[in-house]
Design brief:
The chain has about 60 residues and is an alpha+beta fold. It is about 40% helix and about 15% strand. The protein has three helices and three strands; from the N terminus they run H-E-E-H-E-H. Belongs to the bacterial ribosomal protein bL35 family. Keywords: Ribonucleoprotein, Ribosomal protein.
Length: about 60
């Protein structure tokens, strides 16, 4: 049986912590940053834990 390939798009968007949680980079940080306050930009730059419903699907794509 061949090796299972991970979904490369999913692996670029999500990273796995030591305990197995999935972290994602928040949205709304690509452009139009000059209109957002510095406080909002700092809050959005932090990584976020993926929701449990989404993490189940992403773990399948990552081959976990």
């Amino acid at each position: 049986m061949p090796k299972m390939k991970t979904n490369s798009a999913a692996s670029k968007r999500v990273r796995v912590t030591g305990k197995g949680k999935l972290m994602q980079v928040g949205s709304s940080m690509r452009h139009n940053l000059e209109h957002k306050s510095a406080r909002k930009r700092r809050a959005l730059s932090a990584d976020q834990v993926l929701a449990p419903a989404q993490s189940k699907k992403i773990k399948k794509l990552l081959g976990m």
